[in-house]
Each structure stands twice: as structure tokens, then as C-alpha cells.
Specification:
Layout (H helix, E strand, L loop, with lengths): L43 E3 H12 L5 H13 L4 E2 L9 H6 L1 E3 L17 E2 L2 E2 L8 H17 L21 H11 L9
């Protein structure tokens, strides 16, 4: 068993229990077929299968509260849907039994609007900013907070990489690396 931000039970307070640092938080994409393929069959899975495969992948038990948050966020953000019922699962027990599916035709992602900082596509878009590497790391460290603030919203982060100097000589390697992150991501510049 693994707990995080929860009261320990007497069954968990045993002499050989280990105290560990809090694990990295999970994102809904961590539970998708690309990351946990053995948990999915024909675009369908259950919370129990996903949790079991996550434990294998991480090599240790995972806090069920953190799993439930990522599992429910995946439903709220439209990565997958419940096979029956609607809304979030209230506890791990119901999520473990809960069947989910990924639709054969994912909903289209709206193209970024050229008008920034204004209402568009039934949502809000921030102004485009240029981030240095350390600022991108700051964003990564706070993406879970942002995701939590926008829970239930379809949030997208649009990324464009610009490099100067001798970057064109390395475009093949850059393209290959970016394709490993997301298929279809081209390293060409505009």
C-alpha cells in the first residue's frame, strides 16, 4: 500500500513500512495506451487494470488518492469517458471497478487562434510569450496547479521551438527527438 496526504491505518503502521518522498504527480496522459499499453484492450480499460499496470511501471505501489485524481482528470479533460454513468469516481473502489473507453474518433482539437489574449473558441487563450529554458522548467513545475485550476476544461499547451545559429545543421536529430515526444511534430521552422 502507498498513501499520500491521507491518514495511515493501523494495518499500514508495521515495522517494515518504508517512508518515501512524495512521488511525482500523475497526469491523465500517464494513463493512456501509449504509456500503459498492457492496461488497455481495444481502447477500453478499468481503473483496476490501469492502477495495476502503473504499479508495475513504477516498480512500487502508488498512492491511490493521486491515481484517482489523474484518473478523474482524464475523464474531465475528455481523454476517455466512462462506459456507464457520468462524472468523476468518488473513491478508488468505484474507480477500480469503473470501465472507461477511448472513443474511436477523438474530438477535434481547435487550431490556435491568431487573436491572443481574448475570448475565442468558447474559452480563454493567453497571450503568446517566449520562454527561456528555466521558465519552461518553471511552467513544468506548475503545470499540475494550472491543470487543477482548469479542472474540467479542455486545456492545450501549444509549443513552437525556435533556435538560431547552427540549428539547421541539427534539424534531422531535432526532428527525430521531437517525433519521439509527439508523432507528427516537425522540426521545420516557419
Amino acid at each position: 500500500d502507498s498513501v499520500f496526504e491521507e491518514e495511515l491505518t493501523t494495518q499500514q503502521l508495521v515495522p517494515d513500512a518504508e517512508l518515501r518522498r512524495p512521488p511525482a504527480s500523475l497526469a491523465p496522459v500517464d494513463l493512456l495506451p501509449a504509456n500503459l499499453p498492457d492496461a488497455w484492450t481495444q481502447n477500453a480499460s478499468t481503473g483496476e487494470k490501469l492502477y495495476s499496470e502503473l504499479r508495475k511501471e513504477k516498480g512500487m505501489p502508488w498512492p491511490k488518492k493521486m491515481f484517482l485524481e489523474a484518473f478523474n482528470a482524464g475523464i474531465a479533460q475528455g481523454f476517455y469517458s466512462r462506459s456507464d454513468g457520468t462524472g468523476e469516481f468518488e473513491d478508488y473502489g468505484s474507480a477500480a471497478k469503473g470501465a472507461i473507453r477511448i472513443e474511436a474518433k477523438p474530438k477535434p482539437v481547435p487550431a490556435p487562434s491568431p487573436t491572443t489574449g481574448k475570448k475565442n473558441f468558447n474559452g480563454y487563450e493567453t497571450p503568446e510569450v517566449e520562454l527561456e529554458i528555466h521558465e519552461l522548467q518553471d511552467l513544468e513545475e506548475n503545470i499540475d496547479k494550472l491543470n487543477s485550476l482548469l479542472s474540467g476544461c479542455d486545456m492545450r499547451v501549444v509549443v513552437k521551438i525556435r533556435a538560431s545559429g547552427e540549428a539547421e545543421k541539427k534539424s534531422a536529430e531535432v526532428t527525430q527527438l521531437l517525433e519521439q515526444i509527439k508523432k507528427g511534430w516537425s522540426g521545420s521552422s516557419n
